[in-house]
Write a structure and sequence with these properties.
The protein has 2 domains: 168 residues, NAD(P)-binding Rossmann-like Domain (Rossmann fold), CATH 3.40.50; 125 residues, no CATH class. The chain has 14 helices and 13 strands. A 7-stranded parallel sheet has the order 3-2-1-4-5-6-11, with helices on both faces. It has a two-stranded parallel sheet with strand order 7-10. α2 packs parallel to α3. The radius of gyration is 20 Å and the shape is globular. Pfam families: PRISE (PF22917). InterPro entries: NAD(P)-bd_dom_sf (IPR036291), PRISE-like_Rossmann-fold (IPR055222). It comes from Sanguibacter inulinus.
Length: 376
């Protein structure tokens, strides 16, 4: 029992998802936020694991293959003899237009499974997407009539181009052709540990705090008043990994799309001061107009050089720590942004994370590794 003097845990206990006999997991995008958390859980549970990524996977006991996901020939050369039983797709490639996103990212799923499917070993494939399934892609984000919140998995597709739809269609078609089961995992903003990721709110907020602390500026919330006051949920990367492993090993989850969020809801007006206190900066709420990080942090690269030198940090390239544009999008949404978890609950999934505690724990991990300064 947790006493009043003992800090509560960040999350409900994560079960060990024991691998089926002969299981071999391939994690596509193994060094990203979602992929690296998945690698850690697979290894801890005793799975034979291979990571596909541009950079080598540093986790001991994990095999590595490098391939160009946009080239079927490259995939065939790298994966032709791999014969995995379970594939976890956590990678995507951002393009200039949604038409290009569809061509490239839909093609990645199609070509990957066109190589692996005929090998005859695939049992289950998971695909990580996100709430842009309901909100629309970047170039049509939040435009038009949106589904009611909390978002339900059976909401009709929006009448706009969306590469998530293309990926789901390619996954379903490959399943029908090759006889494996599948699951789709629609995460909200994913909070976890990775360096060099283009969509990393945790390290971006930590870097933002380090820059404003070094320059004596306030820690200004970059989004709108509406975003400050509304309810939002987030997705912890460890929870997302567990959700995928649960679906991959649970017959009741086969051939189903699921939302996956922490299970609590937060308001930035409460969470932002908590982050500020943890990071040693002075919080300030939104003004009448948003103050995007891309504008606030125009001089950040020069300041970051000084922060790195002063604190002995290990990553001098700020672009590998902070993604201002993506965090501006995360913190600039209008109205409540919530996903319903009923479908998972009814199928037996019980994972739960405290968003605030997990986010502070990730920031502490970055500080312990010398990627962010130690909080004061």
């Amino acid at each position: 029992m947790t006493s009043l003097s003992t800090p509560a845990p960040d999350r409900a206990p994560t079960p060990v998802r024991t691998p089926p006999e002969g299981a071999h997991a391939l994690v596509v995008g193994a060094t990203g936020i979602a992929g690296s958390a998945l690698i850690e859980q697979l290894v801890a549970a005793g799975w034979q694991t291979t990571g596909l990524s541009r950079r080598p996977v540093e986790t001991a006991g994990v095999g590595h293959v490098a391939a160009d996901l946009t080239s079927r020939d490259s995939l065939q050369q790298a994966l032709g003899d791999l014969r995995p039983t379970h594939v976890f797709i956590t990678a995507w490639s951002r393009q200039d237009t949604e038409a290009e996103n569809i061509r490239v990212n839909g093609g990645m799923v199609r070509d990957l499974l066109a190589v692996l499917g005929p090998q005859g070993t695939l049992q289950h494939v998971t695909l990580v997407t996100g709430l842009k399934h309901y909100l629309g892609p970047f170039e049509a984000y939040g435009v038009g009539v949106l589904p009611d919140t909390p978002f339900l998995e059976d909401a009709e597709r929006r009448p706009v181009e969306n590469f998530y739809y293309a990926q789901e269609d390619e996954l379903s078609a490959a399943s029908a052709a090759h006889g494996f089961t599948w699951s789709v995992h629609r995460a909200h903003t994913v909070i976890g540990h990775a360096v060099g990721n283009a969509m990393n709110l945790a390290s971006t907020v930590g870097a933002y705090a380090a820059v404003v602390r070094a320059t004596g500026r306030p820690f200004v919330f970059p989004g709108s008043v509406s975003a400050w006051n509304s309810l939002v949920d987030l997705t912890d990367a460890v929870l997302l990994a567990d959700h995928q492993l649960w679906a991959a090993t649970t017959p009741a989850a086969a051939d189903t799309a699921f939302n996956i969020v922490d299970g609590d809801q937060v308001r930035w007006r409460r969470l932002w001061p908590a982050l500020a206190a943890h990071l040693g900066v002075e919080p300030q709420g939104p003004g009448d107009e948003p103050a995007p990080l891309e504008v606030q942090m125009a001089d950040a690269a020069t300041v970051w050089e000084r922060v790195v030198a002063e604190h002995g940090l290990v990553e001098p390239d700020l672009t590998r720590v902070a993604s201002w544009w993506h965090t501006d999008g995360d913190l600039g949404r209008e109205g409540d942004m919530l996903a319903d978890m009923t479908r998972s609950r009814l199928a037996g999934y019980t994972g739960y994370v405290s968003t605030e505690r997990a986010l502070l724990a990730v920031l502490d991990r970055y500080a312990a590794e010398g990627i962010l300064p130690q909080p004061r």
